[in-house]
Design goal:
It is a single chain. About 40% of the residues lie in helices and about 20% in strands. It is an alpha/beta fold. Strands 1, 4, 5, 6, 7, 17, 18, 19 and 20 form a 9-stranded mixed beta sheet that branches. Strand 18 and strand 19 form a beta hairpin. Helix 3 packs parallel to helix 4, helix 3 crosses helix 14 and helix 11 packs antiparallel against helix 12. The protein is globular, with a radius of gyration of 22 Å.
């Protein structure tokens, strides 16, 4: 039984919707927190604190006064995007539809199993370095769809990460590819028997989905008791398209088929009316905010003050990067730019942070809260508070300190994945070489096929 003690850390666990930092040692055995021993921080500063038990019976890791939190969760990721850096893209990319057509819809058609494996490996390493240990991935590889979710699971399992996986169904490549995507979701969900993985029904966006596909999605949801993960109203074009072709809003289209539930994940939701937001709120669906992607694609940002209070708001990256901390800092700064006073902007980030953990527990009820007896999943941030850290000023440390820091060490089930900024039990150099080999193959495909 592995026995690890993390000494001298500021343990910041959610307690009754508040964060109460405690200076402590964390005793971990058999993948769970065995005990938490509070300590005198002043003795630590003076160097007079001593640990009494026998170090020969355990591994000791000195956090040196750093902050420990739960791992972060990325609720909207695209691992398949990871080889897209520097690709020779041809054609205009002056609006959102052209960006999809010239880059992303060419990229996903080019992917094969080796490229998918390399993409997920890169994304997993990036996630761990950013303290992200649970990912809701939205995958697309129309010419290599069959078995793709199982492949992604296998790679993430090797990295000891948790994930909720889905395949992005779309009619953009014809009804045959749409059926293949639906089948990939069904087969993955039916065959899944692992406590660290869940499946959802992935749908691209309403404007690329036929009525027949939405009907079939509703049947699958009912049959498998699952929910959808979908892009919604990322660009204003989707509203125009929906009203022109169906005479209703995209939210109404999804609601008509019963696709909006309390487990539904809606990516973006930028261009929605007050009535649409209220509809989402009434049905309990969650919205994932992806500010970096929205800025990069120039599609606009939600007016954050218009988002109803009771919609779960979650952080995502939309495949641009793995850095959920960056997402949350962007959301804070954008809220300030949109007129939120400091107190309101801070309360808003607090809501997103706590919503993140409430939502993930719908999928993983054992997702911990850093209490005795729970799984030992945690991040030791490379942040030593320069001033006293207390319940009343935690969010100031979080927004201006923790979110600006890197993960120093990352633990899942009592095992270090990252320790002192270095991966444990992983040949990173060889992984990076394979990623580069597959990236070169993708690059050549873009050159030859445009």
């Amino acid at each position: 039984m592995k026995h690890i003690v993390i000494q001298n850390c500021w343990l910041c666990s959610p307690t009754f919707e508040e964060i109460v930092p405690v200076f402590a040692d964390i005793d971990i055995a058999d993948g769970h927190i065995r005990s938490i021993r509070r300590k005198d921080f002043q003795q630590f500063l003076s160097g007079t604190d001593k640990t009494g038990d026998d170090p020969s019976q355990r591994e000791v890791f000195d956090a040196g006064g750093r902050v420990v939190t739960l791992p972060l969760v990325n609720f909207h990721e695209h691992f398949y995007s990871r080889l897209a850096k520097g690709l020779p893209v041809r054609g205009k990319m002056e609006n959102f539809r052209e960006i999809l057509q010239q880059l992303w819809w060419k990229l996903d058609l080019a992917l094969d199993e080796d490229m998918i494996r390399a993409s997920v490996s890169r994304g997993a390493m990036e996630a761990i370095r950013q303290g992200v240990c649970c990912i809701f991935d939205h995958h697309a590889s129309p010419n290599s769809s069959t078995g793709s979710l199982r492949l992604i699971q296998q790679v993430l399992q090797d990295f000891n990460l948790r994930a909720v996986l889905c395949y992005e169904v779309s009619d953009r490549n014809g009804p045959g590819k749409a059926r293949q995507g639906l089948e990939e979701n069904k087969e993955f969900i039916r065959g899944l028997h692992h406590s660290d993985f869940r499946g959802m029904l992935g749908l691209h966006a309403p404007f690329t989905l036929s009525e027949q596909t939405l009907q079939e999605a509703a049947k699958i949801m009912s049959e498998l008791r699952t929910a959808i993960h979908i892009h919604l109203a990322e660009d204003a074009f989707e509203q125009e398209f929906s009203r022109e072709h169906f005479n209703i809003s995209p939210v109404e289209r999804l609601a008509r088929y019963g696709l909006l539930t309390s487990d539904t994940i809606l990516g973006h939701a930028v261009h929605l009316s007050t009535d649409e937001y209220q509809k989402i709120e009434s049905l309990g669906s969650a919205i994932v905010l992806n500010p970096d992607s929205n800025l990069n694609n120039a599609v606009g940002l939600p007016q954050y003050a218009s988002l109803p209070e009771h919609i779960p708001l979650l952080p995502g990256t939309d495949g641009m990067h793995a850095n959920v901390s960056r997402t949350m800092k962007q959301l804070f700064l954008q809220a300030r730019s949109q007129g939120f006073f400091f107190e309101r902007a801070t309360a808003w980030i607090r809501k997103i942070y706590l919503d993140m953990y409430m939502q993930v527990r719908k999928f993983f009820p054992d997702f911990p809260s850093l209490q005795v007896g729970e799984r030992a999943d945690m991040v030791i941030w490379d942040y030593i508070p320069p001033t006293p850290i207390r319940q009343e000023n935690f969010w100031g440390h979080f927004i201006y300190g923790i979110l600006e820091s890197q993960a120093h060490s990352v633990m899942q089930k009592g095992e270090f994945l990252l320790q002192n900024h270095r991966f444990v039990e992983m040949n990173e150099d060889e992984l990076q070489r394979e990623i580069s080999r597959q990236g070169e193959r993708l690059y050549k495909k873009f050159i030859t096929k445009g």
